[in-house]
Amino acid sequence: MKKYMIETWGCQMNEEDSEKMAGMLNSMGYESTGNKEDADIIVFNTCCVRENAELKVYGNLGILKNLKKSKPDLVIAVCGCMMQQKGMAENIKKNYPFVNLIFGTHNIHKFPQLLNNAMQSQNTIIDLSEDYNIEEGIPIKRESKIKAFVTIMYGCNNFCTYCIVPYVRGRERSRKPSDIIKEVSNLSEEGYREITLLGQNVNSYGKGLDEDIDFAKLLTRLSDVEGIERIRFMTSHPKDISYELIDVIKNCSKVCKHVHLPLQSGSSRILKLMNRNYSKEKYLKIADKLKSEIPGIALTTDIIIGFPGETEEDFEETLDVVKMVRFDSAFTFLYSKREGTPAFKMKEQVDERVKHERFNRLLELVNSIALEKNKEYEGKTVRVLVEDISKNDGTKLMGRTDTGKLVNFSFEGYNADDLFGKIEDVKIEEAFTWSLNGKIAK
Ligand code: 5AD
Ligand code: SF4
Questions:
Q1: Are 141 and 120 in contact (CB under 8 A)?
Q2: Beta-carbon neighbour count of residue 438 at 10 Å?
């Protein structure tokens, strides 16, 4: 049997796209391998949200050059967001002529056909056609048997000035509720217990559909699907959070008490330059409302350091919001210039040394608050959806609370196979910055 390997960079959307490509390859009779040397087909699913992600792709392509020399029949495909950038496909073709196939984010459903074309051609096949139709029913091979990603909408209309995503993923479009519900019902029948709904801005779900539906209504309808016990979602844009949504998170027991709400900056001045459409005050108001309406809710965020023109005062406003909201965790990013975005041309780019210094100060604050918040769990018993054997200790199991905390726990007296996919009580004994340790509660 011929083997394939898919390497994925970037966000959960890319992970889900890779799961679809794996599904299509399986249907074509290939099997997966974790080892490049064993593979007959290698697919790189790329990301371009920051320069670092791109550098990794270039580095990995360089490594493939030698592999291809020793294995001329190896088929190499490169796809994903990075390929959608102007001139990128030609650049890859020129500098890495051994790549057989290049395609973008809009034609993943054509993968089997493109692959066949590439196998029969001496040249690099490039397909970046922009087909905005949503293709349903693509086979999918998921990483987990317990939790699944379900994309509910594609693209983004927000054009934050730093961000390349709207240029490489196209305009916002929502899947029909009936298609989403069908997929989730099938997942439930297959034994899945948790779904994570994906979209760049799930709060604007439903716009442009004929049906009268929005994100809060979609959540309510999905919570009727029997067998699915947990519903997560990401990402929420602060400008679009509705009180209806807060009510659904509060009142619907299946909807997890966790909101990922990217702040990006705590300075209203910078937020305006970023085209985020909310102020520091508005963000704080939403965070307060979420915390007061839903006690114990976990809030996580994304923050960019060193956006053009960011001063020490602007940065301190960010620290201020972090201290007031007390995020459970935060992804912190150094601003990365992306060609084609409005911020690329902004004159006052922040000095690299200053960026790094601010980044370290922010990280220290974020981590210390994350640890304090996790410490609040010590001694408490929490409900954990059991997913797998623990990554760093084979005698333990791992899973997550509905607030998204990673829990590693011992399970004396139980058989691991009986616990996978179940929600169990776990007593938390020790908290760390990134995880909790505990034992199954009898
Ligand atoms: N530089 C740094 N971080 C970025 N993000 C998006 N674009 C950039 C950029 N040019 C971050 C944002 C977003 C997350 C997915 O990536 O914080 O929420
Ligand atoms: Fe990028 Fe802003 Fe769209 Fe998120 S909402 S994908 S940060 S443009």
A1: no
A2: 24
**106 touches ligand 1 (CB under 6 Å):** no
Placement of tokens 């439930």 in the chain: 188
Interstrand relation of 381-389 and 397-400 (parallel, antiparallel or unpaired)? antiparallel
What does the block give as tokens for 252?
């619907």
Residues near ligand 2 with C-beta < 6 Å?
A: 156, 158-160, 163, 165-166, 200-201, 237
Count of alpha carbons within 13 angstroms of residue 430, beta-carbon side? 5
Over its length of 442 residues, how does the chain's per-residue pLDDT go in tens digits? Answer: 899 999 999 999 999 999 999 999 999 999 999 999 999 999 999 999 999 999 999 999 999 999 999 999 999 999 999 999 999 999 999 999 999 999 999 999 999 999 999 999 989 999 998 878 888 989 999 989 999 999 999 999 999 999 999 999 999 999 999 999 999 999 999 999 999 999 999 999 999 999 999 999 999 999 999 999 999 999 999 998 999 999 999 999 999 999 999 999 999 999 999 999 999 999 999 999 999 999 999 999 999 999 999 999 999 999 999 999 999 999 999 999 999 999 999 999 999 999 999 999 999 999 999 999 999 999 999 999 999 999 989 999 999 999 999 999 999 999 999 999 999 999 999 999 999 999 999 7
- Cβ within 8 Å of residue 286, ≥6 positions away: 238, 241, 261
344-352 contacts, C-beta under 8 A, 24 or more apart: 346/161, 346/273, 346/308, 346/309, 347/308, 348/308, 348/309, 349/308, 350/306, 350/307, 350/308, 350/309, 350/310
Question: Ligand 2 mean position to 432 CA, how many Å?
Answer: 31
Q: Are 207 and 156 in contact (CB under 8 A)?
A: no
* Residue with token string 């693209």: 155
Residue 275 C-alpha to ligand 2 middle, in angstroms? 10
Q: What separation, in Å, do the N-terminal and C-terminal C-alpha atoms of the chain show? A: 46
- The size of the chain, in residues, is 442
